[in-house]
Amino acid sequence: MNATAIAHPTEEGARALRYAALLATYLQSVNLPLPNAALRFIQGSLSMADDQVGWIFTAYFAASAITLPIASWLAARFGLRRVYLLALAVFALGLVLATLSTTPLAFSGARIIQGAASGVLGPLSMAIALETLPAARRAKFGVVLTAIVLSGIATGPSIGGWVSDLFGWRWMFYLGLPVTAYIVLVMGLSLAEKKAAQRPPFDFFGYGSFTLGVIGLQLLLDRGERLDWFASTEICVEALASALGFYLFAVHRLTTKTHFLGKHLFRDRNFVLSTVIFFALGFVLLPTLALTSPMLDEILGYPPITTGCLTLPRGAGLVGAFLLAARMPERIDPRLVVAAGVALVAYANWLMLGYSPLMDWRPVAVAGALQGIGLGVLMPSISKVAFSTLDPQFRPEATGLFNLARIYGSTLGIAIVQTYFFNNMQAMHMALGGNLTPFHGAGAALAASSASPALLGLNEMLTGQAAFVSVLGQFKVLMLAMLAVAPLVPFLRKPNPAS
After folding, report:
1. Cys bridge to 475: 116, 172, 202, 352, which one at CB 3.0-4.6 A?
2. Are 352 and 305 within one domain?
3. pTM for the model
4. In this protein, which residues make up the domain named Major facilitator superfamily (MFS) profile (predicted)?
5. CATH code of the domain containing 430
6. Are 145 and 282 in the same domain?
7. pLDDT digits (tens, 9 = 90+) for 4-30
8. Range of the domain at 193
9. 87-140 pLDDT, tens per residue?
């Protein structure tokens, strides 16, 4: 029996389930970038260091990547209704703990709890929504579900910035509690319990070894800068754990017939190449937000409301282009659309290299909108190419891997750009400070003055300049990530329109 099968509710009950599932989909996606525009407030109240900011995003994303592959197995083994309601309760617990946090570690723990629940809520919400529809409508409804996820990512920073500026940053999490309670009420009353008649199989060794490798790598990247990399015993342990996990996974995959991430998926050229491109898309999608909002909020001094609003052009371009590209006529070769999307994203990141401390809001809005349009065009097109030549019986498993590629791309991308950002900022600060001598005008004036406020002001100015140059360097890394996968596009096979 399918673990996500639902008993036949009334039409009103099915509609209520569908809307509640869509609301849960939006809730778990909007909470990912929600703190983005309010980082200055969160840092100040929690005494959070600059290199800990990335944990706000990677904690949520990494936790969701861990639980997402086992969501369907949990529902089949323990029951869809039970698992879904428990995930909602855990998500609400994460929201409450975020509002009560007083230290960076406590806040990161709350984000881990939210992310772990999100990884279960995402696929099960999709299953619930699709099962309330006739089979003929499910394919088109999948576009709506993806658009809702993208809408949550697009609107999260603006909602968080607005709420934080008016009521305080903790209220952005308080607002999620009544929404979660409403979803629990609807699901508790209308969702029937279903689970598999027999215990479903799952490759826990493959899943566990792969997860160990990813967690070790994530912790290494997140903690390395703070602990001076391999001079720290903790970093060495995390590196060994990651290497061991990936080694065990590789051996297990080569020596067993059935396992997590089956071999058959890697025999389809279109799927493999598209998954790599989708990984690069994830590498750009959220790290851009993780760089842009702190640049506007902390370096340029924009208020959180303005910072959040400047993410809206990117979000509007992303969602609008996605909906248009998803309805593109079949006669148009999607490989051409994929190439156009990759080129547009790379061009938008190239425009970001021209940001200046003296600019107004328009360059950010234009570059963000173009990048959003490129990503929105790319997502449905690369998905169509990925599954066009794949055996239909493998599509459910392939969908999980395909989505994991985007999630891992984003979480590793955020960790990598944060690491390089702080390394580059320190190097740039030293380079700029090295040119400041008593023989220059500003240096001579300060040398003649013993006033420490003047020295502190100069150091703050140098730090701001170094940080801004480092942000531009990370936009270059994101641009190179898209350019690196561009040569893969010509190797994609033309999809069969009948597929």
Report:
1. 352
2. yes
3. 0.84
4. 17-498
5. 1.20.1250.20
6. no
7. 444 456 777 788 888 999 999 999 999
8. 1-202
9. 999 999 999 999 999 998 899 999 999 999 999 998 899 888 888 888 777 777
Give me 167's structure tokens. 């009521």
Residue 268 included in any domain: no
Question: Are 147 and 248 members of one domain?
Answer: no
Cα distance between residue 424 and residue 321, in whole Å: 34
Question: In Å, what is the CA distance from 328 to each residue of 9, 21, 377, 384?
Answer: 34, 27, 10, 11
Residue keyed to tokens 């990598």? 416
| pLDDT tens, residue by residue, 465-496 | 777 888 888 899 999 999 999 999 999 887 76
Express each pLDDT in 166-186 by its tens digit. 888 899 999 999 999 999 999
In the chain, the number of structural domains is 3
Examine residue 272 and state whether it is found in any structural domain, yes or no: no
Provide the pLDDT for residue 424: 74
Do 89 and 78 reside in the same domain of the chain? yes
Which residues does the chain have with pLDDT short of 70?
1-9, 51, 196-197, 258-262, 429, 431-460, 496-499
Tell me: do 371 and 449 sit in the same domain: yes
Rounded-to-integer distance, Cα 36 and Cα 143, Å: 26
